[in-house]
Specification:
The protein has an eight-stranded parallel β-sheet. Strands 5-4-7-8 form a four-stranded antiparallel β-sheet. It has 20 helices and twelve strands. By secondary structure, it is α/β, with parallel strands linked by helices. The longest helix has 27 residues, at 199-225. Helix 4 (117-138) crosses helix 9 and helix 5 packs across helix 6 (155-170). The protein is globular.
């Protein structure tokens, strides 16, 4: 599908300056939406919102359907009577440092502002559990009724997830295939006993999922009132240690010991000489086809119910995916294997009534992948940071971005300023200067103006580039374990002058937001 011309900002909610050491769906999120509205931005893009697993990566979730409970706002729960606000105030949780607005480019982010996941889990989760217990014991009757409706409507994924989550906690976060055999293999008698033994625990976890989705949908409704569409992100693969693989083992290539037989990744490339070994189990596409791609239909239907547009991560994998022997420590010895191609997407179009997607089609992309995307009428991506190398890189430049979604960089890139200072080759800087002209207000603004004024339908800029941050604000370095997904901005960074500058550029480049229908199912945390 084609998208209306608009400008937007990429910011994962964990990067918001909320209290509790991690961004969430509370006041800081609403303040950010107010900033987007004043800056005349029509799009907010997030990364996957699921509960994080390996390496705290949003692309390595323990569920394709559940929400990350760390994104639940305790302040919103207190407003609804789930927990005493005084208890939150007294809790030993890091509080956002609210200071005067900064007047210059923000390039001094300190490590103390970053997300410390281990500490956040230890401090926030007990408060969330206490709030959920309070709600289940004495919540308002209308909210309890909505909760029961939520449970009934979402039992198809929720029941298995909360049992998986409770069992995972009981077994000290061990991967599910290390649990007792009767649980790992989902023997009916063992599942029945586990559900009975863990009934209170699973009820609490269900209540937290209810809180997550009502807070998220309330935030989406707030966006819709301001003409802001939300772009979600769907990772092509799922974690081995996930409710999805545990529940649907027949859909994944596993050994008799329930270990991955082969795993996902990409071959050696710009980011890594040994490739990227992601470790996700690969799909049994033949079995999925026999089932009418039911799991994928449910997954994408759920995604489109919770976001307006969807970015499909690693689109190439739907044409061909890199198959790595699970025993190999790197991705070097993998091979390309055919994916489902048109067959999957025709089924999705039939089930969903359309394909509100765009494709992450970066890296080495074959003509066959472009042809698949074109046949499906799914826009691709252009990343301006990649465009200043040799002639083959010019496909990423703004003048060739018609029909695409353009970025200055993504969550996997260094920031523009960081790239300019240390990552760009001399000839790339020389080419960028020739293309962009003088950038007296910083090279990042040269990139932003080029993206906004391009013929691309959507122009989406990471907030780090809007703020002119350096490498200290990088969100992720591929193939590097540890230290990723931690960046947070400070409240004073979002100034009125910055909003006015973005608004002027949105008006000049014909990217002003357009109104659309308000959501009607968000009543919890508005």
């Amino acid at each position: 599908m084609s998208f209306p011309r608009a400008a937007g900002i990429l910011l994962h909610p964990t990067s918001l300056p909320a209290r509790g050491g991690i961004g969430d769906f509370g006041p800081a999120a609403y303040g950010f939406i107010d900033f987007l509205a004043s800056a005349r931005q029509g799009v907010w893009q997030v990364l996957p919102l699921g509960p994080v697993g390996y390496g705290n990566s949003p692309y390595s979730s323990t569920s394709a359907f559940a929400g990350n409970p760390l994104l639940i706002s305790l302040e919103r729960l207190a407003e609804r009577g789930w927990i005493d606000k005084a208890k939150i105030d007294k809790a030993k949780i890091d509080k956002a440092k609210i200071g005067p607005a900064k007047t210059g480019p923000a390039n001094t982010a300190s490590d103390s502002d970053a997300v410390e996941y281990e500490s956040v889990f230890a401090q926030k989760m007990p408060l969330l559990f206490e709030a959920a217990r309070n709600f289940l014991r004495s919540g308002a009757s209308d909210a309890l009724l909505r909760f029961e409706t939520f449970r009934a409507d979402n039992a198809w994924w929720l029941d298995d997830f909360v049992l998986f989550d409770a069992l995972r906690a009981r077994h000290k976060l061990e991967c599910w295939n290390q649990w007792p055999h009767d649980l790992a293999s989902r023997e009916p008698s063992a599942l029945e006993k586990a559900r009975a033994d863990l009934a209170d625990d699973t009820q609490i976890r269900s209540a937290l999922q209810f809180a997550f989705y009502e807070q998220w949908r309330a935030l989406r409704s707030y966006c819709a009132e301001r003409g802001i569409r939300v772009v979600g992100d769907v990772a092509i693969f799922v974690n081995h240690d996930s409710a999805d693989v545990w529940t649907h083992r027949e859909l994944f290539r596993l050994t008799d010991k329930l270990e991955p037989e082969v795993v996902a990744g990409v071959p050696p490339d710009f980011f890594s000489k040994t490739g990227q070994r992601w470790g996700n189990p690969l799909y049994r596409w033949d079995v999925m086809k026999e089932q009418g791609y039911r799991w994928w239909v449910e997954r994408l239907r759920w995604a489109t119910q919770n976001c307006d547009y969807i970015r499909l991560d690693h689109f190439r994998g739907f044409d061909q995916f890199w198959e790595i022997p699970a025993a190999d420590p790197t991705a070097v010895n993998g091979r390309w294997v055919d994916g489902p191609r048109d067959d999957l997407f025709l089924k999705l179009r039939e089930a969903l009534g359309g394909l509100p997607f765009f494709a992450e089609d970066l890296g080495y992309i074959t003509p066959e992948v472009h042809a698949l995307r074109d046949r499906l009428q799914i826009p691709g991506m252009a990343v301006l940071q990649f465009g200043f190398g040799d002639a083959g890189a010019h496909m990423y430049l703004p003048h060739r971005a018609a029909g695409k979604v353009i970025y200055t960089g993504t969550h996997d890139n260094d920031t523009v300023v960081g790239w300019w200072r240390a990552g760009a080759a001399e000839h790339e800087r020389r080419n960028a200067e020739a293309y962009l002209g003088r950038c007296d207000d910083g090279v990042h603004w040269g990139f932003i103006r080029a993206a906004q004024c391009s013929p691309a339908s959507l122009s989406i800029i990471p907030l780090q580039d809007v703020l002119g941050l350096g490498s200290e604000a990088r969100m992720n370095t591929p193939s590097v374990y540890g230290g990723n997904w931690r960046w947070r901005f400070e409240p004073g960074h979002l100034t009125g002058d910055l909003a006015a500058k973005l608004a002027h550029l949105a008006e000049l480049s014909d990217r002003l937001p357009t109104p659309f229908a308000k959501l009607t199912d968000a009543s919890f945390a508005a």
